[in-house]
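Question: what's this shape?

___
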Amino acid sequence: MGVVGACVARPTGAEQVRTVVAAAGSLMVVTDRHSWEPAGLHTFDDRGRLLLRVPDDCPLAAEVALAPRGIVAAVLKFTDVAPTAVRDRVRARVTLTGWFVPAGGTSHDCGLDLRLDFAHAELETTAGTVTVGLDELTLARPDPLAAYEADMLTHLVDDHSDVVALLTRLVDPRLMQGVLRVTPVSMDRYGITLRLEHAGAHHDVRLPFPAPLRDPAEAGGQVQALLAAARACRRRYGAPSRP
């Protein structure tokens, strides 16, 4: 049974942007005067708007204080890095441009809340660069596994290399020729992506779940369904090295 080449569902560009931003621990904020790398200070509100908590003593807070009506043009850059040790670990880059505006004033713990009014959203992946519509971005939601994917993948690699090897039975045997290592590189509500590494190259293979996940609690059952399908396949090639 080979699943490569099948038409499998994938997250939309807007969903990917929301997922990258939701899972990112830090970002780069660039304005006309400063660049800054805040960590753990951004969130999305219920209306899909990005909020940033800015310490009162940071350069961006001073720039907002001096700007007319407190509005500052900004570029926000996010980098999505695979949690597992693979070649070319950068999976995606997201660039958001717009204007920071005050949102709620100064908080009780001495910080300024800013809201980003979007002007442009761009997603760069190995498939190319696309512009994501602002209406799409507002309506999209992060993948339900966004906050759990890193732990799930590292657990799979560190403690269940036998499971990874079994999943390779779902890959077209022709693509396994010369493969030295197989490592899960991503997981979303639609399935798992394996990275097949050769001596001087690599490519990715999607293994779709039988049905898209609705919440993280369903991940175990969907992975077990893939494993059941893999066990039903005949081994037609040598096993690659363990991750």
